Amino acid sequence: MPDEARVVYDLRGLKCPLPVLKTRKRMATLGPGALIEVTTTDPLAVIDIPHFCNEDGHRLEEAIPIEGGHRFLIRKRA
């Protein structure tokens, strides 16, 4: 998986609900099974992004804390 292509989406500095809204809009342009890496500084993203993935049927493959925020790796539903 480390060599797999992914879309990198930097949403640092945006506050709820913008990280989820922008991620949803960006994912609509991706093909099934695509990977997107989302970086955010919004503290509520640790709740909102997993909830969004669950609701829309995407797989949250990774959620890790980084300096000042979090990084999420999401696989678009097939």
Automatic annotation (TrEMBL):
Superkingdom of origin: Bacteria
Residue span(s) of domain UPF0033: 9-76
InterPro entries with a match to the protein in the record: TusA-like, TusA-like_sf
Pfam family, one: TusA
Family statement drawn from the similarity comment of this UniProt entry: Belongs to the sulfur carrier protein TusA family.
The protein's name: Response regulator SirA
Source organism: Sinorhizobium saheli
